[in-house]
Amino acid sequence: MSKRRGLSLEEKREHMLQIFYDSQDFFLLKELEKLGPKKGVISQSVKDVVQSLVDDDLVLKDKIGTSVYFWSLPSCAGNQLRNAHNKLESDLSSCTKRLAELDEQRESLKRGREESDDREMALEELKTIELQYKKLKEELSLFADNDPAAIEAMKAAIEIAHSASNRWTDNIFTLQHWCSSNFPEAKEQLEHMYKEVGITEDLDYL
Fold this sequence. Notes:
Blueprint: H1 9-23, E1 27-28, H2 29-35, H3 43-55, E2 60-64, E3 67-71, H4 74-110, H5 117-142, H6 148-182, H7 187-196
Helix pairs in contact: 1-3, 2-3
């Protein structure tokens, strides 16, 4: 004898809904867990099945005091299905309207683009011009270093770098003088530290 197949999730949902529809009453979860097995839904899965029905607005729940009650009437399912139907109808109408607009736009774009010898010649000419433009653009990039604007920008950057270099050199000299004045007994240690960070005796302004 073949083993009996378990209920699918949709079948479990239908059976749990039937409990609500038959009684048209309010239930606690523990009550549903006792009634579920009578409809073929094991008590361990009742909670998840009922929650899925709540998520789909087929079962309502509310907390009264410390208890949570669940209920559903056939009209709840009818309202939910009507709302879903109305939404699908609205979506279908919008998509149909958009499709008509796109068809009209496509036909409009086709006008003046019919295949012809003149069109083929124009496309070939356009392709030639695009290739020539690409080639000229590549050649122009070779002379970018001689661009007056680029040269001026480089000069300005050099001036800024020169000024910054001298400013930092001046800061180093100031710091060295301060260290020598405040820590004369650490002269050798300071000179060793200067050398470690690359500050040598030939350091000077640019």
